[in-house]
Amino acid sequence: MKPEETIDHPIRWAWHRIMRRYNEQAAVHGGSMSIGYALLNIDPEGTPSTKLGPKMGMEARSLTRTLKNMEEKGLIKRVPDNTDGRMIRIFLTPEGKRMRDISKAAVIRFNETVQANIPARELVAFHDVMHKINALLDKKDLFK
């Protein structure tokens, strides 16, 4: 089977191209796609650091590096939780909120462009297929 005939190849190929385009946009503002994605997943009332990784589908090691970078850039601050001193909440700084708005605008522009160029029925079919693939991926016996 040729790579272009597999299911995963076009998904991986498109995702890498999407990442490159988002990274190009983020670089203009001194950021990266992973920083933008993290900014979009931090709640206004703060997000517990332990919940952010699962929310983003990111491994702890990569997330730690991203959060450290974001803190150094002044985009986030870590604050102990009011009710549970063991928990750390992550909050956006004013600069983080500004960068979040930029990230959100880029995601909206991308989605509007896709929606303007691909018929709605094809997008519905795409989402249906992706949901089914994700359901298959949840099965432990996927490769049996």
Please describe what this structure looks like.
Strand 2 and strand 3 form a beta hairpin. This protein has a single domain (3-137), classed as Arc Repressor Mutant, subunit A, CATH 1.10.10. It has 144 residues and is mainly alpha-helical. It has helices at 8-28, 33-41, 49-56, 60-72, 94-117, 120-137, and strands at 47-48, 76-80, 88-92. Strands 1-3-2 form a 3-stranded antiparallel sheet. The chain is globular. The model has no long low-confidence stretch (mean pLDDT 92). Helix content is 65%, strand content 8%. The chain starts with 7 loop residues before the first helix and ends in a 7-residue tail after the last helix. The relative contact order is 0.11. The chain contains 6 helices and 3 strands.
In terms of topology, how is this protein built?
Elements: H1 8-28, H2 33-41, E1 47-48, H3 49-56, H4 60-72, E2 76-80, E3 88-92, H5 94-117, H6 120-137
Antiparallel strand pairs: 1-3, 2-3
Task: Write a concise synopsis of the structure shown.
By secondary structure, this protein is mostly helical. 65% of the residues lie in helices and 8% in strands. Strands 1-3-2 form a three-stranded antiparallel sheet.
